[in-house]
């Protein structure tokens, strides 16, 4: 039959994918990605240049986290990374899986190892379907610093002093002195590194300009005075390099870059459902606000997430992942033999992003074929969703199961 002949000739001319790092995780998202690789990618793409790293809890445990160090080193060398969601084991999972310890989140090691600047999270849009926001919402979350890197001790009554000792040996500086009067307090220290803010600013303002959206810088600097530096660094880059371009594009309604207080930003995200805006924020605010964006925009399956870092030679390291976790509840349902309906769009958008970034780093005719193949993949997923053949988060009870959706896409590509 014609279809079989077509398949064999297609298989003979597989597109050779450029080098990329593929990090696998576990649970429902791993199960889903295995099928996507088997049914969509492997029949058409030669992935022998990809490097695989298994960051499941058991693999991290047996290698004493060498697999994480190897994955980070490979990512820094190759520059294009796809990551499945991973489990950061709780004490319960530690016991259940028989782990030596409850290994910490791998994300910090990646953000440090890849000189992380920002985590970009954008709404995914499907022509013909109204999700939450009508036009794109772009987000830049500073990838390092803040509460995530905090040190702390539980302390009682007494005097608390925070000292800074300059590297150059000059006079120490007292950062803060206070008297604690409670029997029980959490004393916390953290810093907000500002050296990478100009890079974050360039990334954010060039993206907003290209996407035709209005940029906002979000902080709580009115009360948290130490956040002023983030705003100042962002505004300096904006005024020097982007202001005129935004005026020309009609994207600066008030004539100046706008600052939003973070609590006001939480309200605007719910109200501004027309979309067409971008926000840049510190690490923790960015974490909270992007989760809010994902809820307004229907499901975490409709948000992309990409960690942008900078290699020593100035080239961009980009890691792409879904914004959600391993979807453990659906995995449990699957193990019980029940039907599940995982929306793979965020996962696949991440795979597409990583494959396209790898292609842009390599260039050449094969790279162009990868771009065309992945663009078509996206189109097919969107078409099915528009036709009501999407997953149940979008189409309700009549929607397809995890496996049916993967099969439907496979047939059409
Ligand atoms: P989750 O994002 O996996 O799921 C939250 C809820 O949203 C669940 O009800 C789930 O069914 C639903 N959901 C998420 N994505 C969906 C999709 N694509 N389609 C349909 N429904 C979807 O978060 P969780 O349940 O809090 O965490 C599960 C595990 O994931 C935990 O072990 C956690 O450590 C891990 N996690 C990993 C990452 C990461 O690797 N980046 C991020 C968050 C959580």
Q: What is the count of structural domains? A: 2
What is the third-level CATH name, the topology of the largest domain? Isopropylmalate Dehydrogenase
The CATH architecture category of the largest domain equals 3-Layer(aba) Sandwich
Strand order of the largest sheet: 4-2-5-16-15-6-7-14-12-13
Molecular shape: globular
Ions, cofactors, ligands: which are bound? nicotinamide-adenine-dinucleotide
Output mean pLDDT. Answer: 94
Q: Write down the Rg.
A: 23 Å
For the record, give the distance between the C-alpha atoms at the N and C termini, rounded to a whole number. Answer: 18 Å
Q: Work out the helicity level.
A: 40-55%
- Class of secondary structure makeup: alpha/beta
Total beta strands: 16
In brief, what are we looking at here?
The protein has 413 residues and is of the alpha/beta class. The chain contains 15 helices and 16 strands. The strands form four sheets. The chain has a ten-stranded mixed sheet with strand order 4-2-5-16-15-6-7-14-12-13, with helices on both faces. A two-stranded parallel sheet has the order 1-3.
Describe the structure in your own words.
- By secondary structure, the chain is α/β, with parallel strands linked by helices.
- The protein has helices at residues 2-12, 27-41, 57-62, 66-78, 91-97, 107-113, 197-211, 228-248, 262-271, 283-296, 328-335, 345-362, 365-386, 392-395, 402-412, and strands at residues 15-16, 21-24, 45-46, 51-54, 80-83, 116-123, 137-142, 151-155, 158-164, 173-180, 185-189, 214-219, 258-261, 277-281, 303-310, 316-322.
- It folds into two domains: 15-130 and 301-413, Isopropylmalate Dehydrogenase, CATH 3.40.718; 132-144 and 208-297, no CATH class.
- The chain has 15 helices and 16 strands.
- The longest helix has 22 residues, at 365-386.
- The protein is globular, with a radius of gyration of 23 Å.
- The structure holds nicotinamide-adenine-dinucleotide.
